[in-house]
Design a protein that fits this description.
It is a single chain. This protein is an alpha/beta fold. Helices cover 29% and strands 31% of the residues. It has helices at 2-33, 79-85, 94-99, 138-143, 161-166, 185-191, 221-231; strands spanning 52-57, 70-75, 104-107, 110-112, 116-125, 128-132, 146-160, 173-179, 201-207, 234-241, 247-254. β5 (116-125) and β6 (128-132) form a beta hairpin. The relative contact order is 0.12.
Length: 257
């Protein structure tokens, strides 16, 4: 009987060990299947003493100067252009760039309503080189005749507008947001909802109603931008459309800024 009892204990012990190991295996599998969720945001490490920030999306070669008490963060998808914008001796506006070198940060990426990778198109017209996340439309080609259609295609990283705004800690003020996104301005900015309210001033490229320079989006001042910015609590300061061209720039200021 004692032998039978010992045998039972051995079997029970073995079963417990197997059960524990199996449970660990299931637990590990669940941990692998379910990705970790970070409970804190990953803010940019803003230089000490920075009180204000300007954001410029679509900076090309010349991002605007930073605020006196802060920095400017610019986004430019074309790597060579971004490098020049970051300050390379001998390039356009070198004196101004050298002066602001320590306060200018250029990120070689596009901004839209999602994060990932995307196709970036470049073409050439009599106005100069142009680039966008979308091809030029037939209507756009009428106003800006293409000399060489899509002479360059590249693949670039794209960051959502929401993540751009969320990456900046609440301890600094975003005093200005400027966009020149070749048709994607409203599409990107509106995707962030009320995050736009973090900016005290917004300068955006806008199009007249019925005009679509690029295939992807309308970016219309009257039917898209105006109602959205009114809803977000901004007042229109000015809007200027270039002579004989249905595009221009609109400036808003947050009412409670």
């Amino acid at each position: 009987m004692l032998k039978s009892f010992k045998t039972t204990v051995v079997y029970v012990g073995f079963a417990l060990i197997v059960g524990i190991l199996f449970g660990i295996g299931i637990s590990n599998k669940r941990n692998i299947d379910k990705p970790s969720v970070f409970k804190h945001k990953h803010y940019l490490d803003i230089p000490e003493g920075t009180k204000t920030i300007k954001i410029n999306i679509g900076s090309s070669y010349d991002p605007p100067p930073p605020p006196p008490d802060g920095i400017i963060i610019a986004f430019e998808p074309t790597v060579t252009t971004a490098a020049e914008a970051q300050v390379i001796p001998g390039t356009t506006c070198c004196a101004q760039k050298t002066k602001y070198k320590e306060k200018t940060y250029v990120i070689p990426a596009a901004v839209s309503n999602y994060t990932g990778m995307t196709t970036f198109y470049r073409d050439k017209s009599r106005w100069g080189d142009s680039s966008s996340l979308s091809k030029v439309s037939k209507q756009g080609n009428e106003y800006f005749p293409i000399l060489k259609d899509v002479f360059s295609v590249s693949y670039v990283p794209v960051i959502s507008f929401s993540e751009v705004m969320d990456s900046i800690g609440q301890h600094v003020d975003i005093i200005e947001l400027k966009t020149d996104m070749q048709g994607f301005d409203f599409h990107a900015v509106s995707s962030g909802g009320n995050r736009i309210r973090r900016a005290k001033k917004v300068i955006a490229e806008v199009y007249k109603e019925g005009f679509r320079e690029y295939e992807a989006h309308a970016n219309c001042f009257e039917t898209e931008w105006k109602p959205f910015m009114n809803k977000m609590g901004f007042r229109l300061v000015s809007v200027y459309f270039y002579p004989n061209v249905p595009e221009g720039d609109a400036i808003w200021e947050r009412i409670d800024a």
